[in-house]
Amino acid sequence: MGSYAGLHTRKDEQTANICYSRECIMNEQKEKFGLTHPQQRIWYTEKLHPGTGMWNNAGTLKVKGRLDYPLLEKAVNMFINDNESARLRIGVKDNAPYQYIADYKPLKLDLLDFTERT
User: Whole-prediction pTM value?
Assistant: First the structure.
């Protein structure tokens, strides 16, 4: 399944044509973009309080019944592959932050099985 990033119309600088091709989309993913104002606030807060993860949201999901773990892992990987926001990364060059879309890499989920614990 293809990515939807860059499907907005843009002028290709070399040919002055509007670019919709997958190749243009893949090239745009390698580009670096400045941070939005909310991202800048998060970045600066992380610089002041490194490693706290205060912007992370956590939750718990209780599953009743049997869980098809391989299917769950496949679904999570499909989500990551299809949603660029899940692959958004922040980098720093010359002490200035930027954002980019990382290439998809399959994720191996850790399985913690507590069924035998009482």
Answer: 0.62
